[in-house]
Write a structure and sequence with these properties.
- The chain has 248 residues and is an alpha/beta fold.
- The chain is built from 9 helices and 6 strands.
- It folds into 2 domains: 136 residues, 3-Layer(aba) Sandwich (Rossmann fold); 77 residues, Orthogonal Bundle (Transcription Termination Factor Rho, Rna-binding Domain, Chain A, Domain 1).
- It has a 6-stranded parallel sheet with strand order 3-2-1-4-5-6, sandwiched between helices.
- Helix 9 links the parallel strand 4 and strand 5.
Length: 248
């Protein structure tokens, strides 16, 4: 990794795919799980507010205000194939994933180096937040149903592209900083995507790129962002340096 002084960090904001968890699990397990159930969800629960709002967003995005459930399902499938980070897709996936986790049909994946570090940071008083393209509902289910139990108690807040904005725009990170009340320079963002790290830095945040072997962005150019291959490589976090206030 490159050197970076990480003292002065009050809160860490976590990406999920490729950072805390394997992208392959999302693509190979979660995506098919939701895709197989889109049709039933749209047919039987289209009147539910969250579902209806997402369907209206799909229709608006494709410019087809009268698109029926079959057409909407087809578009959702196309977006899955293209790995589109479309908010209505993430909303509907989140509804189905949350139910799958609650029924015990799904258990979330975390890299083995992640949870011990999250627990240590939490114990040390570092606030933890999540910012993912997956919906808040999906994030909540993900952290509540890990192989090591419910981790939601470690997390102070959840952000997605709906309540914060697109992940490669600096204004999204300014929104999160304002909402958390943490000064931008005391926020640390962890992500596997250089474009997201660039946006966070443009908003005044500290950044660490997580480059894991086998992940889609493992060979990307991270520029001068600090880089690690595991959370265990991240230097200790603290509000002040260990020698603060000591006499020379």
């Amino acid at each position: 990794m490159t050197d970076q002084n990480l003292y002065g960090v009050d809160a860490v904001v976590l990406d999920i795919e490729g950072t805390t968890s394997a992208t392959g699990f999302v693509v190979d397990v979660l995506y098919p799980y939701a895709r197989e159930r889109f049709g039933e969800l749209l047919a039987s629960r289209g009147g539910e507010p969250e579902v209806a709002r997402a369907v209206a967003q799909v229709r608006a995005e494709i410019g087809e205000p009268d698109a029926d459930a079959g057409r909407v399902e087809k578009v959702l499938g196309e977006w899955v194939d293209a790995d589109r980070k479309a908010t209505p897709l993430k909303t509907l996936q989140g509804v189905l994933w949350a139910e799958g986790f609650a029924r015990g049909e799904l258990v979330s994946h975390f890299y083995p180096d992640v949870i011990p570090v999250l627990r240590r940071w939490h114990a040390d008083g570092v606030r933890l937040y999540v910012y993912s393209s997956g919906s808040v509902a999906a994030q909540r289910a993900w952290f509540a149903h890990s192989a090591e139990g419910d981790l939601l108690g470690l997390v102070s807040g959840l952000y997605d592209t709906e309540n914060a904005g697109p992940k490669q725009e600096a204004d999204s990170y300014r929104t999160i900083a304002s909402d958390t009340g943490v000064a931008p320079g005391r926020l640390l963002f962890l992500s596997d995507r250089p474009g997201e790290l660039d946006a966070a830095r443009a908003a005044g945040w500290r950044t660490v790129g997580v480059r894991r072997a086998g992940e889609p962005y493992a060979d990307a150019d991270f520029g001068d962002h600090t880089r690690v291959s595991a959370f265990s490589e991240i230097p200790p976090l603290a509000a002040t340096p260990p020698d603060a206030g000591s006499s020379s």
